[in-house]
Amino acid sequence: MKITKDLYQSSLVLLTDFYQLTMAYAYWKSGKGEQEAVFNLFFRKHPFQGGFTLAAGLDYVIDFCRNFKFEKGELEYLGDMKNKDGSPVFESAFLDYLQNLEFTCDIDAVEEGTVVFPNAPMIRVKGPLIQCQLLETPLLNIINFQTLIATKAARINLAAQGEPVLEFGLRRAQGIDGALAASRAAYIGGCTSTSNVMAGKLFGIPVAGTHAHSWIMSFETELEAFEAYAEAFPDQCVFLVDTYDTLNGVKNAIKVGDKLRAKGKEMVGIRIDSGDLAYFSTQARQMLDEAGFPDAKIVASNDLDEHIITSLKSQDAAINVWGVGTKLVTAYDQPALGAVYKLSAVKNSEGVWEPKVKVSQQSLKINIPGFHNVKRYYSNGKAVSDMIYLEDQEIDPRGVVIIDPIDATRRKRLMPAFYKEEVLLKPIFKKGEKVYTIPSLHEIRERAATQLESLDKAHKRLVNPHLYPVGLEENLHHLRMDLVLKAKKFENEQEAE
């Protein structure tokens, strides 16, 4: 599905920061526009103080790159931009260059639904500097949000312990774009359905819903409202019972449930949207069981998240289905993932790749140089370590040392010959041509479930999770340190002059 075309009917090439275009112009002006470069997209810290992150958004990235084209309207807009002195910001020859620009990059990426960790590349882009630079903002925009929401959804589903989680967040989502992307990402993260009908149509996500308090209030009595709803939807009756008095609402639901049963139909359940969910759910369960409805589900909503669900579980709340909205689709308590996109290598005039490093006083912000990839090692189906390594570096199967990119004292020795390994960055585009077969959203969701199952429970704890080992292969660590020390020496020499 061409997502951007379906939603907007035009190119999204201007979905970028202005400085990406000014840099592209300066690259072109200086003759560096076609110089090959490598950029990596990665994040530095897990969201929600968690122990894992779930990758999402690659399908949107693929769609964006396939439709990467400066069309007439975009070029006219750029051509009308003026400097303070009235001269054009971009000269016409550069706009001609953009008009003829064709996407020719290589892109390798972790597949959607893959569990990922800080500092390891999620996407690697190789190609002309101008193209790589123009991809930065849209790729970050796509990956940051969908990965954040997929991770939040996975945490909520872990808290629900296998019980269905329905995504109800459309009305509270961050606009149309945010709502659709959130519904998609939430499904990847394990939600069973969405209330968002457009997301159901676009992505094939099952849709679900009950009725609102307004439905009840539009009738003289709650019982009449339930009876009318049962007449309209005899096979899908989930009654919202807390409009007036929750326990009396349960009694009315039971009365209508009896009438449905007399017609050969069965009440699906009730929904509670306010009050003490632990107390009302256990009372409702007792009432339903005593009335002969042991299979009736109790759906709970009302600003739920993973922490509230965990608390309700600890109180033995009798809830079977969880409706989660605001705190899921807005990634409540973590406004952004914080992924970044950094240059790691450029090809010089002799055709040799030169690794590049960004030096910082904060070790967290020193990027990983060179042309590298990530391997994940498994033992008996469980992920044990990730290694970031230079692609041209031969890995000794008898033993390799990985070194934490933030704390060099944290080291681990691996014997690759004893593990099953997976290379995480998969080819997506080669010279601008898509070479990757896009899985269905349902297959991506299944991958996410498998990936989460491969993690030890200690890494999936919602509070104070155990740190999963991710490290630089020793040669890459030394390359990085050498470049940092060289840059610092140069900086000190400049200060001394």
From TrEMBL:
Pathway: Cofactor biosynthesis; NAD(+) biosynthesis; nicotinate D-ribonucleotide from nicotinate: step 1/1. It comes from Algoriphagus boseongensis. GO terms for molecular function: nicotinamide phosphoribosyltransferase activity; nicotinate phosphoribosyltransferase activity. GO terms for biological process: NAD+ biosynthetic process via the salvage pathway. Its EC number is 6.3.4.21. This is Nicotinate phosphoribosyltransferase. Pfam families: NAPRTase, NAPRTase_C, NAPRTase_N. Residues 167-348 form the Nicotinate/nicotinamide phosphoribosyltransferase domain.
